[in-house]
Amino acid sequence: MSNAELAIALLGACQKRGIMVATAESCTGGLIIAALTDIAGSSAVVDRGFITYSNEAKMEMLGVSAATLDAHGAVSRETVLEMAAGALAHSRASLSLAVTGIAGPGGGSADKPIGLVWFGIALAGRPEVAERQLFGHKGRELIRHETVRHALQLGLRALD
């Protein structure tokens, strides 16, 4: 399925369940919320998107703790879980998709290479879930595209 088809499927799944969705995005810079809002009628289930590129934005908009960022960094399981929870807490959504990663071409390290992305999914009434993906050093555009795809797929799985 294309990203557009995945977005349509996710919007339909949300509509069927009568829930709204929000995103908390770092490395994608709003591409996930854009994929959703590209679909006509998406306003019925899309609440908002948080573009939290900086650590300050993660703290101010989503309530990610400075202690988490200091201890684990922006690209970590702990941070993405707080991003996902924060998106629910600061919206009317019952489902949130959160992503933080290193799209490149710079910024990677041995511990956190280019292409590393953490995904967080929060569904009201359930514990947040995090998943790590390593897309490899395949170029910024491909990493961001694949991050959008994977986030939409995770959202669909969460609603199954």
From TrEMBL:
Q: So which domain of life are we looking at?
A: Bacteria
Q: Where are the transmembrane segments?
A: none
- Coiled coil segments of this chain: none
CinA C-terminal domain location is 6-154
Quote the SUPFAM superfamilies the UniProt record gives: CinA-like
InterPro entries associated with the record: CinA-like_C, CinA_C
Q: Which NCBIfam families match?
A: PncC_domain
Can you say what this protein is called? CinA family protein
